[in-house]
Specification:
The complex is a heterodimer of chains A (335) and B (624).
Chain A: H1 9-17, H2 32-36, H3 38-42, H4 48-57, H5 60-64, H6 88-101, E1 112-113, H7 123-127, E2 133-140, E3 143-150, H8 160-164, E4 170-171, H9 177-185, E5 205-210, H10 217-226, E6 231-236, H11 244-252, E7 257-263, H12 273-290, E8 298-303, H13 310-334
Parallel strand pairs in A: 5-6, 5-7, 7-8
Antiparallel strand pairs in A: 1-4, 2-3
Helix pairs in contact in A: 4-6
Chain B: H1 2-6, E1 16-24, E2 27-34, H2 50-53, E3 57-59, E4 68-70, E5 72-73, E6 85-86, H3 96-101, E7 114-120, E8 123-125, E9 129-131, E10 148-150, H4 151-157, E11 179-186, H5 201-215, E12 220-225, H6 235-244, E13 248-251, E14 256-259, E15 266-272, E16 277-283, E17 285-290, E18 292-294, H7 298-305, E19 332-334, H8 344-362, E20 374-376, H9 391-395, E21 401-402, E22 410-411, H10 421-425, E23 431-433, H11 438-448, E24 457-462, H12 466-475, E25 484-489, H13 497-505, E26 510-515, H14 526-543, E27 551-555, H15 561-577, H16 580-597, H17 605-623
Parallel strand pairs in B: 8-19, 10-17, 11-12, 11-17, 12-13, 24-25, 24-26, 26-27
Antiparallel strand pairs in B: 1-2, 2-7, 3-4, 5-6, 9-18, 14-15, 15-16, 20-23, 21-22
Helix pairs in contact in B: 5-6, 11-17, 12-15, 13-16
Classes of the chains: A alpha/beta (335), B alpha/beta (624).
One iron/sulfur cluster binds next to helix 10 of chain B.
């Protein structure tokens, strides 16, 4: 039972006084945000409505000590749907600010800087959509150098900095290049001959899919189930995390096509990820054309959580485009 | 409707529009334009033989465009009067209908719009409401997914006189739905669109769910809702019956609908508040319980009849509790959803009430009005001298003033409600208000500021709100310092800038102008007239060398006793912080300029009397 002394009116007032927290009490708990929230699809324990409701009751300890208050990624998918016009991510930020002041820390994961390799170039600082990276003087091997420093209370583990860092100094649990490559190649998938080489009966595709651009948990599971010798699905936190080197490696190994799927422009969970992902694919296409590879083989596609079976449609379209390439390319290879 | 059509004392003017209304209670003149039907009313027998021969089919808006209508048709089967009309925009003039009509000879392509003038004693506005178009909510997919329909479309699809003869089918494939969802509060209770509750939709969805469940017991019906609002007689029992019948109620506002492009089935994602879990519910068809919204031509009608609108956009009543049927203008009444969302029983009740209110007017030989009205002194009005002015008419919320160059402004007493806005606006002091003349107000001021004026806060308060607020502060024992003195007028619109200046001339320490919040103003837009006026006064005070911090404007409702006490306390603290000698010097320095400005007052007989009395007193004081 929640006892009266746990319901702390002062806590409510502190949130209301915090910038962004002003509208806490107008939430009427309709659940629209909870059913919209993309984070909740991967982390069912996170329920923005319940956090707002508990905060409105003044349950200070329960709210400030919970891991969930750090989970909101400020994607603002819920905000345009809230019938009370509550900017939920702002309220979350207000609550987090109180938590930080009370000595709590985000549970992570967060990006990590390898101080020895970081050159202090600040590419990550500019790339991070959450302004979580600063350049700070730090002692490295007995020397003071100005290098990147990640505020783990702000980092949302999108991995954009990992892909952006030219020195390979940034890393993120389970999202490092090496780990991604392992997922791409597992089971010797990369080592099989391709359709365009005249070997496979159907095009073999590698798909990098942003976790937010697909619908729901079960869709996620369904995608994993689609994996076979012709298709490999690698889920990324964001299409901006795609690594061009991996795409080129796959093509050089004989994979027929690569699909990168991200959110629609303007709906990116990390604000700029779609822009980055699409830019990378466009650059790859140019490079491919320059070296005589058909650029149609690598494609960027947009989708959203509102679209059913978008992934299958994109895979089928890419397969078709590659099938149309076969005679020409085979003769090219043979000639 | 049929009864109304047969009634000897009721004339129905269908296909007509009210273009203009002049006059006032008991004596309105309405200009009504009848649009051409291209069918002669007296000759049309309503046989409908012209319809089958007409080759033109266009979507029928009455059937929510689900079914077609002909270019010659009636809006629907129960139309009263049952007279056909030609939709001239779509007619190709093949004249097949003329042949079909034959001897009845009712079709006349030469008809023109006809305007007639009708004298009426009272007007009832019962123009109803429109319904919200949910295609602006992308997450519900209306307009994109064929099986997402509105409540109004369901009404037609489930109606035995409707386009499917009552057979409910899905638009995507014509198959009957087995799983049906109702989504409540679409466009209502949603700050993005309409903040209000539409009131009818909980019960209307439950009604349709029950009707469908009775007819198709195997149908799986789910109602998604935030709250079920069933406050009227018998409604809660009806709601219980729906639950008993197995209609499923899920408390939660759906976040989105997605469609399987192959089957056309819909997936509704919602957090079940009671479980705290997100559900995905698959249905064959979803019905959106859309909001009632003001008719698109509400503003036009408001201008025609000089009516006001509430923040929600519906017509505003005189008083929400005490006079919910009356318009702020005498002789005009409201019935039904034109005044605000409501269901049929409430609309009928209001309709009967409006008829009774109107009957009072029709049966009265004379009509008593409030004694507080404005009067023009023709000799002072510059309009009479051929100059263009009309400031009074622009300020009048009731359109009660007629200004024609060459004639003095004329106030129609039956239309005047006595806000006093014109009195304060008139730069010639040509208008005065019974019971609230400038002289009466200045006489009060004189008494209040007779002694130690620099230690007093002079408050101008409106009768309906801020006076009530001050009263409320007293009744509720909210403490505030005793240095304020209040003068009551009917509306903040009556508060002349000159009255504020006069208070400073008489040495007041501070002046507070207070009235209603804009939405509470008793005189439609009186508060707005005042708000605009006093925005300008701060600059004037500065120019006169009076610290503008000594003047304050606050909107205080009758319930805000606490606010009244707080404002006075704050002002009193501020006043205490001023050096009194400096205040006196400030007032003294401004005195002459203000006197100059108020010179015209001396030409008003009653004001001159007040001022003369004062000069006498001053002389006596000097002698002593
Ligand atoms: C889908 C739906 C289902 C509903 N179901 C129920 C229900 O089950 N039970 C219930 O109690 N209520 C229900 N309601 C509410 C009900 O429809 C209203 O309460 C009721 O119709 C209001 O009556 P009214 O006379 O005010 O307006 P209306 O019925 O809208 O009538 C207004 C009339 O004025 C005419 N008009 C408009 N402008 C002008 C003009 N400028 N000049 C001349 N004429 C004009 C219109 O053409 C219309 O005929 C439902 C509403 C909707 C939208
Ligand atoms: S902003 Fe995004 S992550 Fe945060 S609660 Fe809303 S939907 Fe969830
Ligand atoms: S992982 Fe994303 S949020 Fe975290 S520091 Fe890197 S770019 Fe910023
Ligand atoms: S009546 Fe019911 S469905 Fe309609 S707006 Fe009010 S709460 Fe929502
Ligand atoms: S402005 Fe007010 S006082 Fe003047 S005529 Fe109009 S209603 Fe009467």
């Amino acid at each position: 039972m929640i006892r009266p002394e746990q319901m702390d009116r002062r806590f409510v007032e502190e949130i209301l006084a915090e910038p962004g927290g002003e509208h806490l009490l107008t939430c009427w708990s309709c659940g629209t945000c909870a059913a919209t929230c993309l984070v909740r699809r991967f982390n069912p324990a996170f329920n923005p409505r319940l956090i707002l409701h508990k905060a409105g009751l003044g349950l200070r300890e329960a709210v400030l000590s919970s891991a969930e208050i750090w989970a909101c990624s400020a994607c603002d998918a819920c905000y345009p749907r809230c019938p009370q016009g509550i900017h939920i991510s702002d309220v979350m930020r207000a609550i987090r600010n109180l938590a930080i002041r009370a000595g709590y820390e985000a549970p992570g994961p967060a990006a990590q800087v390898d101080a020895a390799t970081c050159s202090g170039c600040a590419v990550c600082t500019r790339a991070c959509p959450y302004a979580a990276i600063e350049r700070k003087p730090q002692m490295v091997n007995g020397q003071e150098r100005t290098i990147a420093w990640v505020d783990r209370n702000l980092c949302q583990a999108c991995g954009i900095c990992v892909a952006a860092c030219p020195s390979g100094a940034m890393s993120l649990e389970a999202m490092n290049d090496a780990e991604l490559l392992t997922r791409v190649a597992a089971g010797g998938w990369l080592e099989q001959p391709g359709f365009l080489q005249g070997a496979s009966d159907a095009p073999r595709l590698l798909a990098f899919v942003c976790q937010w651009s697909i619908r729901a948990e079960e869709e996620w599971e369904r995608l994993q189930g689609l994996n076979d010798e012709h298709l490999r699905v690698v889920i990324l936190p964001c299409s901006g995390r795609v690594e061009p080197a991996h795409v080129l490696l796959a093509l050089s190994k004989g994979v027929d096509g690569v699909l990168v799927m991200g959110c629609h422009e303007g709906e990116c969970h990390y604000q700029r990820g779609t822009y980055l992902g699409r830019g990378k694919v466009a650059l790859l296409n140019e490079m491919m054309a320059a070296v005589g590879l058909a650029p149609q083989r690598v494609r960027f596609a947009e989708s959203s959580a509102l679209e059913r079976r978008a992934f299958e449609r994109q895979v089928a379209a890419l397969r078709e485009a590659i099938a149309a390439l076969r005679p020409a390319e085979i003769s090219e290879v043979r000639g | 409707m049929v009864d109304a059509a047969r009634h000897p004392k009721i004339t129905i003017k269908a296909y007509s529009e009210v273009e203009r209304v002049d006059g006032y209670i008991g004596n309105f003149r309405a200009f009504i334009t009848q649009k051409p039907r291209y069918v002669i009313e007296e000759r049309c027998t309503g046989c409908g033989e012209c319809v089958p021969v007409c080759p033109i089919e266009v979507p029928n808006p009455f059937e929510m465009n689900i079914a077609p209508r002909k270019a010659i048709d009636v809006p629907h089967g129960q139309a009263v009067p049952l007279i056909y009309a030609i939709d001239i925009e779509n007619c190709i003039k093949c004249y097949q209908c003329v042949t079909a009509c034959g001897e009845r000879d009712a079709i006349d392509f030469l008809q023109e719009p006809r305007t007639e003038e009708v004298e009426v004693g009272a007007i009832i506005v019962a123009t109803g409401a429109d319904h919200f178009n949910p295609s602006v909510i992308p997450e519900y997919g209306y307009g994109r997914y064929p099986n997402v329909i509105t409540a109004m479309e369901l009404e037609r699809l489930a109606n035995s006189a409707g386009p499917t003869v009552g057979r409910l089918i899905r638009p995507s494939d014509g198959q009957p739905p087995h799983r049906l969802a109702f989504i409540q509060c679409v466009g209502s209770r949603d700050k993005r669109f309409n903040e209000y509750c539409s009131g009818y939709c909980c019960m209307a969805s439950i009604k349709n769910a029950i009707l469908l469940k009775q007819e198709h017991p195997e149908m799986e019906i789910t109602i998604f809702y935030m709250d079920i609002r069933s406050p009227s007689k018998g409604y809660e029992e009806f709601y219980n019956r729906a639950r008993q019948m197995g209609i499923r109620f899920i408390r939660g506002r759906p976040a989105q609908i997605t469609e399987d492009p192959e089957t056309g089935n819909l997936f509704i994602e919602v957090e079940d508040q009671d479980l705290g879990q997100v559900l995905e519910v698959e249905v064959d068809m979803a019905v959106l319980a859309t909001a009632l919204i003001p008719q698109p031509d509400t503003q036009q009608l408001a201008t025609t009849l000089t009516l006001a609108r509430s923040p929600s956009g519906f017509f505003m009543e005189y008083h929400p509790k005490l006079r919910p049927i009356d318009a702020p203008n005498d002789g005009i009444f409201f019935a039904g959803t034109a005044q605000g969302p409501k269901d049929i029983p409430a609309s009928v009740a209001q309709g009967s009430a409006a008829a009774a209110r109107a009957a009072r007017v029709l049966n009265a030989e004379t009509w008593e009005i409030e004694p507080v009205i404005a009067r023009v002194e023709p000799s002072l009005c510059i309009s009479a001298q051929g100059k263009k002015c009309g400031l009074c008419a622009a300020a009048c919320p009731y359109n009660a003033i007629i200004v024609e160059v060459g004639r003095a402004a004329q106030i129609i007493p039956a239309k005047c409600h006595g806000c006093g806005g014109c009195v304060a606006e008139c730069p010639q002091n040509a208008i005065t208000q019974d019971h609230f003349t400038d002289a009466q107000i200045v006489a009060q001021m004189r008494e209040y500021l007779r002694e130690k004026p620099e230690e007093k806060i002079l408050v101008l308060m409106c009768h309906w709100c801020s006076y009530g607020g001050a009263d409320n502060a007293g009744v509720s024992h909210f403490q505030y310092p005793p240095d304020s003195r209040g003068i009551r007028v009917m509306c903040s619109a009556r508060m002349d800038q000159d009255l504020v200046l006069e208070a400073f001339r008489r040495g007041a320490g501070m002046v507070l102008v207070s009235g209603c919040h804009p939405q509470d103003c008793h005189y439609i837009s009186g508060q707005q007239v005042a708000a605009r006026r006093f925005e300008r006064l701060f600059r004037t005070l500065e120019r006169l060398g009076i610290n503008p911090e000594r003047f304050r404007v606050e909107w205080i409702s009758a319930a805000e006793g606490e606010k009244y006490a707080r404002v006075i306390t704050e002002m009193s603290q501020k006043l205490a912080s001023f050096d009194k000698a400096a205040l006196r010097r400030e007032n003294e320095a401004a005195r002459k300029a203000i006197m100059q400005r108020l010179l015209r007052w001396r030409s008003l007989p009653d004001m001159a009397a007040v001022l003369a009395e004062e000069e006498e007193e001053e002389k006596e004081a000097v002698l002593e």
